[in-house]
Amino acid sequence: MAALVYTEPDGRLATWRDRKRYLWLLALIPSSATFIAVGLVTATGWNVFWWTGPLIAFALIPVIDILAGEDGKNPPDEVIDELENDRFYRWCTYAYLPLQYTAFFLSCYIWARWDLSVLSNIGLAVTIGVTAGIGINTAHELGHKKESVERWLSKIVLAQSAYGHFYLEHNRGHHVRVSTPEDPATSRFGETLYGFWPRSVGGGLKSAWHLEKTRFERLGTTHWSIKNDVLNAWLMSVVLFGVALAVFGIGIAPYLVIQAFIGFSLLEAINYLEHYGLLRQKTASGRYERCTPAHSWNSDRICTTVFLYHLQRHSDHHANPTRRYQALRSMEEAPQLPSGYASMIMLATVPPLWRKVMDHRVLEHYRGDITQVNIAPKKRAKILASYGVNA
């Protein structure tokens, strides 16, 4: 892309070029993890490389995050429209799908035809699960767009992880209730990842079903319809897994379950990071205040930013949900995570370390006022008492 020319507020002409333009292609590496694993195992004979997916996500990326540092560069407001209309960036996301599903069926073939140990098969399932999980972020990017073809592509990506209802609940549920106690996808102060996971998984499913049922009631017709966006998304998973089992045999079933579990659990781990402890206050009318940059944790670490299509610029995403990833901006007023998502997920798996790193940041964000924090209800009295506040 040639440099974009725009006019400065003082009338001077200026140019801007996206320095990350071709770095976005690196986001396709997770979709290629299975191919990388096969190549490394073939070249070395080391079965540990069947675990290439988590090695990339939770070892390689955090190291690069540290070495590469932060981005902090925003496109000028004057070029955002032109930047969003550059179709190169769309094809970067579209390309994830053929790689994802080629890797999926290759994995099915390996489970069914290669004589691997159970441990190696599980490693491959975790690897393809990482592809599915990071693929949910691709689905997230596509699902927010106005073009119907992109929304359908979002559902296709989600089929592998059997999490098609996320497309609906995230857009019409989470974005409405974010950083409130009513949102199952907003983690609470004092809540562990392991406590959050079942609440978010179950709550998100119930929310999606309720949203569609309500929509059909308003239309005066039954929600038991192929037009129900929960049912048609789930049907895609049924067809996908049905075809895989018919072609490769029932023996691959446990690995299909493992990879789907890893996929949507990776999404839920990211959900846990994004709004931990943050709370929109109620106004005099009893309604929640509008969502602002202060209600999302951000991180501008350039490596995970590129691998996750600017998802870590989360405040701008909530402010402008349909804005394409390449145009999302880093916001100084947003609270900042100390590292990228990959590193923070690892930290969240050890609750005492997570709370040591994050709890004081939440409190500092609210200038020491614990009463403004979104606290886990079961721990509310104990937490408030620890800060000298009566429940």
SSE map:
Elements: E1 4-7, E2 13-16, H1 33-44, H2 52-68, H3 80-84, H4 88-94, H5 96-113, H6 118-143, H7 148-159, H8 166-177, H9 193-219, H10 229-248, H11 253-274, H12 302-307, H13 314-319, H14 341-348, H15 351-365, H16 380-386
Antiparallel strand pairs: 1-2
Structure description:
The protein contains 16 helices and two strands. It has 391 residues and is mainly alpha-helical. The longest helix has 27 residues, at 193-219. It is globular and about 65 Å long. The model has no long low-confidence stretch (mean pLDDT 94).
Tell the overall outline: globular
- Estimated structural class: mainly alpha
**Cα-atom Rg, whole angstroms?**
22 Å
Largest sheet: 2 strands, antiparallel
Give the topology string: H per helix, E per strand: EEHHHHHHHHHHHHHHHH
Strand coverage percent: under 5%
Q: Report the average pLDDT across residues.
A: 94
Query: What count of helical segments does DSSP give?
Result: 16
Q: Bin the helical content.
A: 55-70%
Low-confidence stretches: none
Distance between the amino and carboxyl termini:
57 Å
Overall strand count: 2
Strand order of the largest sheet: 1-2
Short recap of the structure:
The protein is mainly alpha-helical and 391 residues long.
